Amino acid sequence: MLQHAAPEGPAAIGHALKRRGIGMQIVRIDQGAPVPRSIDRVAGLIVMGGPMSVYEADRYPHLRAELRMIERALDAGLPILGVCLGSQLLAEALGAKVVPSGRKEIGWHEVQLHDGARQDALWQGGEDRFVGFHWHGDVFDLPQGATPLASSRLTPLQAFRSGPNAYGLLFHLEVDEPQIRSFVDTFAGELAAAKIPPGPILEGMSVHLAPLELLGARVFDRWAALIDARR
User: Fold this and answer.
1) CB 113, CB 87: distance < 8 Å
2) Catalytic residue among 8, 84, 105, 134
3) Residue 172 designated active-site
4) Which of 3, 44, 87, 192 suits a disulfide with 227, CB 3.0-4.6 Å?
5) Catalytic, out of 8, 174, 208, 213
6) 161, 162, 165, 166 alpha-carbon torsion, rounded to 10°
7) pTM surpassing 0.85?
8) Fold of domain 2-228
């Protein structure tokens, strides 16, 4: 797993893997760890979020190495899960364009699942709408041949699948309460610049977090099953 910021750890994703007895190596890019050059003995790849943008590779050279790693994982047919920045990197690796949206989508916003989600191995059998946790300012086009899975009022593409097991989620399905509080504290400057008050984000946890955690446990368990099937 590639991690780019302290608040953006695996949380529910890690719990799902642990329930299935699947080990996880966390590579802390934010602490200077290099991007692994090899995917030998890797059963799946998780790329988490971060404050940088895909198109800032000149400023953050590790992004180029991450794109190469994602491309190798795609070629090998590994299960891939990209969250927020990770979904943008996956979209870029698949040839899609990633651009600034011109406005921040931060906090609790409804997510609408598309028809493709009803037949999807991770998403089938759930509600068509739910309130997700968001923290992004970039968006991407649908990669060629990919299946759109979800959207929101502000963002036409919130989730997609490429092939049978490569998933990009722009919103945060993995979060827990400590993580959300850490987002608010760590990225307070971003909130202030966007004129988004932290109060509704923190207060919204009492209503929205429990159902989101239930959904995340189901979706990530199903993604972990893709890795289990390869072992």
Assistant:
1) no
2) 84
3) yes
4) 44
5) 174
6) -80
7) yes
8) Rossmann fold (3.40.50)
Distance separating alpha carbons of residues 231 and 227, to the nearest angstrom: 7
Q: Give helix 12-19 / helix 205-228 axis angle, nearest 10°.
A: 40
* Helix-strand-coil split of the chain, %, nearest 5: 35, 25, 40
Known catalytic residue at 177: no
Helix axes of 177-186 and 205-228: crossing angle, nearest 10 degrees = 110
Report CA Rg, the chain.
Answer: 16
Local mean pLDDT, 10-residue blocks, the chain (231 residues): 97 97 96 95 96 97 97 97 98 98 97 97 95 98 98 98 97 98 98 97 98 98 94 70
4 is a catalytic site residue: no
Structure tokens at 137: 């300012």
Name the amino acid, one letter, at 151.
S
Q: Which of 114, 134, 172, 208 is catalytic?
A: 172
